[in-house]
Amino acid sequence: MKIAIIGAGNMGGATALGLAGALPDARITVTAKHAATLEKFAARGLQTSLDNVSAAADADVVVLGVKPWLAQGVLAELKPALAGKVLVSFVAGVPGAEMLTWLDGSGIAGAYSVIPNLAIEVGESMSFIHELCGTPETLATVRGLFDAVGRTAVVDEKRLNAGMMLASCGTAFALRYVRASAEGGVELGLYPQEALDAALQTVRGAAALLAARGTHPEAEIDRVTTPGGITIKGLNAMEEAGFSAAVIAGLKAWKPKQ
Ligand SMILES: NC(=O)c1ccc[n+]([C@@H]2O[C@H](COP(=O)([O-])OP(=O)(O)OC[C@H]3O[C@@H](n4cnc5c(N)ncnc54)[C@H](OP(=O)(O)O)[C@@H]3O)[C@@H](O)[C@H]2O)c1
Q1: Closest by alpha carbon to 102, among 124, 135, 136, 79?
Q2: Which of 33, 117, 164, 169 best tests ligand 1's pocket when mutated (most atoms within 8 Å of CB)?
Q3: Can you give the residue range of the structural domain that contains 14?
């Protein structure tokens, strides 16, 4: 399969590297505004180009990874090259109906809003997929690509936005927990690197435990909270400081475009 990633920045670049690792037979071309952005991808053996239209024309799947305020202009440029292709848009916050008007007359075979997260680079994304238009075959193509670099969920537009907060912004939220944990560990007397390694392995282990056992987090918490013990004291102190409420408030901070 030939994939063109238009805009190899944080998300487009992570996707290019993740897909290159997972799908060695795919031919991946990345584009950017500046040649310097492309150097690290060329060094990893990917095709690079400053010409969006020829990259898209030569691809089966075109991934749009530019910032939201550039998306309409870049799509207008790409439009003549999109007939019969599958478009994947990473552009967050643009309503699907608006995106479809930008694609009007392009003859696109399928168009999808996809919100992955940065862990796509290491094959561990949680990617939400919303179909703007397409067929069972084009959806299977898109799902197959993102299944190769993590897990996927196909959702309607409302749940795409929820998924973006939970799993895409959620990567930053989870990392902030890791940072806070490590900082607390240093205050308790661990060396900074020791504390960071321990925080990371603890989160990794907790996630692996839930995934392996298929249990609810609270069921596992019950297993480690000895009555009157230090874990329940710690949990209650965190809740008193607003832990769960702060996480939920963070998730609800996004407001849809009016
Ligand atoms: N970051 C995330 O976690 C995340 C998560 C989900 C969705 N998204 C969405 O992904 C999109 C990209 O976000 P980002 O954080 O990856 O942005 P970014 O790091 O700024 O990357 C954007 C890339 O677009 C390139 N670019 C700019 N104008 C271009 C043009 N005319 N033609 C081709 N390439 C062009 C830039 O090239 P240069 O580097 O050469 O300037 C840059 O590499 C956004 O729409 C965002 O909503 C991001």
Answers
A1: 79
A2: 33
A3: 2-155
